[in-house]
Amino acid sequence: MLITIADVLAGLIGAGIIVIGARALWAPRAAAGFGIPGTPTEDPAFRAWLSVKAVRDIASGVFLFVLMIAATPQVLGWFMLAAAGIPVGDALIVLRSKGPRSVAYGVHAATAAVMLVIGVLLLVA
Questions:
Q1: 12 SS3 class
Q2: Per-residue pLDDT of the chain (125 residues; tens, 9 = 90+)
Q3: Distance separating alpha carbons of residues 104 and 114, to the nearest angstrom
Q4: Is this structure's pTM higher than 0.85?
């Protein structure tokens, strides 16, 4: 099995989203880094919703690893292209919430762009 740069990058995306989910569970204040002003990290109701998001982030990262192990590069590529919609949506949420453009573009949109590139690289592998 030949491991490509795209595989390594996909693995880093998977690991990164697992870490983001874990941080949201164990350090809810980290959610303020998402980019929404006035994030109520001390509110129990918000923490419950944050836990839901955290579990979904962790599962999304695990999905990437499952596909890396069990699927073809093309299947992983299609998954990466589809999953790039998540950080695009995150960027739009930050912008709509009047959050910092630097976070919307520098974190969320940049992640989407990297995921799109990885997806294309995997599709042509």
A1: helix
A2: 577 899 999 999 999 999 999 999 999 888 888 998 888 988 999 999 999 999 999 999 999 999 999 999 999 999 999 999 999 999 999 999 999 999 999 999 999 999 999 999 999 98
A3: 14
A4: yes
Cβ contact 15:61 at 8 Å: yes
Cα separation, 88 vs 121, whole angstroms? 19
Which residues, at least 6 apart from 74, have a Cβ–Cβ distance to it below 8 Å? 122, 123, 125
Look at residues 53, 45, 35 and name the one whose alpha carbon lies nearest to residue 111: 35
Give the H or E element holding residue 53: helix 44-70
Report the candidate in 46, 37, 49, 35 with the shortest Cα–Cα distance to residue 108: 35
**Count of all residues that appear for the chain in the document:** 125
Long-range CB contacts for residues 39-46, cutoff 8 Å, separation at least 24: none
